[in-house]
Amino acid sequence: MAEDVLPKPAGPVAEPPAPACLADYAERARAVLPPEVWDYIDGGSGAEITLAANRRALDRVAVLPRVLRGVPTPRTETRLLGAPSALPVAVAPIAYQRLVHPDGELALAAAAAAAGVPYLASTLGSVPIEQVAKAGGSVWFQLYWLRDRGLVTDLLDRAHAAGCTALTVTVDVPVLGRRLRDVRNAFAVPPHVVAANLPAGRDDLAHTAMPGVSAIATHTHAVFAPALTWDDLDWLRGCTALPLVVKGILDPRDAVLAVAAGADAVVVSNHGGRQLDGAPATAAVLPEVVAAVADRCEVLMDSGIRGGMDVLRALALGANGVLVGRPMLWALAVGGQAGAEAALTLLADEFRDALALTGCADPAAARELSTRTVD
User: Fold this and answer.
1) Residue 17's pLDDT is what?
2) Catalytic (active-site) positions
3) How far apart, in Å, are the Cα atoms of 127 and each of 14, 105, 106, 203?
4) C-alpha pair distances (Å), 89 with each of 85, 302, 314, 324
C-alpha cells in the first residue's frame, strides 16, 4: 500500500469551546437529553404563542445608556426580600430536576449557594426539601396548593424546620396548561424520578404513560387544589413569619390584592409560557405591576430571561430582580453542579458588562434607566 494512502493515526478529539452565552447550553442540553425530556423542559402550552412572546417582548426593550458616569467597576450585589444577594437573580422553582441530571436539585441548589443567589425549591422537587436546604445558601420554598390541606400544613412545617428563608406560593396553576408536546409524546416521569416532597405513592399517576395524555397533567389534576382564593392566601400569611412571595401575577389589580394580603413580593410570571397560551409577555406588563404596587412590595419577574442583558432590561422596567429557569436546567443537564456554577458565573459577567455599558454603578442605578420599545 502506498505510504500516502495509509490511514493516519487518530488524533485527540478537540473539546468544544466553553459556552459563550446561556443559549450555548441549550444546544448542548438538547444533544444529551432524551427528546421527550427536552420537549418537557423546552415546551410551552397550546400553540406556544406566549412562550415565543416572552422572548420577543424582551428583545423589543431598548435601554438608554448613560455616559460619563465615572463607573470603573460596577457592583452586582443587591438585596432580595431584605437579604443580601450577589446578583438581582434567583434560581426559579423547577420540578423533577433529576430528569436532566442524577444530582438534580442538590447540584443546582449548591450552584446557587456558590454564586450567592437564592434557590427556589419546588413542591414537586425530586429531592426532599430537607436535603436541598443542606446545600447551603438561601433556599426559598415554593408551594403548590394541594387538595389535602393537611399536606400543605406539613409542607409548611417542613420548610420552616429545614431553614427556608422565604415562602413562595404559585397561584397560576388551577389546572395544568395543555402542553401539546407532552400530550403528543405521552410523556410520563420515569419511575426513578419522584416527587420527593409528597408521601410515597402520591405521584404514581405521574409515572403512568397513556397514549395522547400527559401523565404530569393527570397527576397535578388529582393533587392540586383548583380553586385557590384570596382567603387561602390570608390563611397562608397567618401560618408563617417568613417573607411571602406570590408568583404568577400578570394583572396589576391582582398585584394590589396580593399586597393587601401581606405579600412581601410578587413575581410577574406567565409560568414560562406553560399555562395560559395567549397571556401577555411578562416584560409587557411588568411596568404596570410596578406602578400598581408603588414600592409597597418587591417585584420580581420571570419567563424568558436568557442573559445578563435581560436582567438589566427587567431592572430598567422597574423590577427588583428576576428568576431564571430553563437556562439553569440546560446547564445542569450539560455539566451538573459545575455546569450550573459556570452558567451563573457567565450570567454575572454579562450583567456586570451590561451595567458598565449603561453607566450604572449597581443594580439600583439600573432601575433608574430609561427604556424604549422598538420594533
Assistant:
1) 86
2) 271
3) 35, 6, 7, 14
4) 8, 10, 11, 7
pLDDT value of position 203: 85
The residue written with cell numbers 425530586 in the block is: 126
Is there a binding annotation on residue 96?
no
Q: What angle do CA 93, 142, 165 make, to 5 degrees?
A: 105
Q: Give me the residue spans of the domains in the chain.
A: 22-363
Amino acid at 347: L
| Residues of the chain below pLDDT 70 | 1-14
* Burial state string for 290-302 with b = 16 or more CB within 10 A and e = fewer than 16: bebbeeebbbbbb
As a residue count, the chain comes to 375
**Among all chains, which residue has been given the C-alpha cell 413575581?**
267
344's enclosing H/E stretch is helix 326-357
User: CA-to-CA distance for 29 and 143, rounded, in angstroms?
Assistant: 28
d(CA 60, CA 77): 26
CATH of domain 22-363: 3.20.20.70
Question: Is 326 known as a binding-site position?
Answer: yes
The values of phi and psi at residue 131, to 5°, are -75, -40
What pLDDT does 8 receive? 52
Q: Is 170 annotated as a binding residue?
A: yes
306 labeled part of a ligand binding site = yes
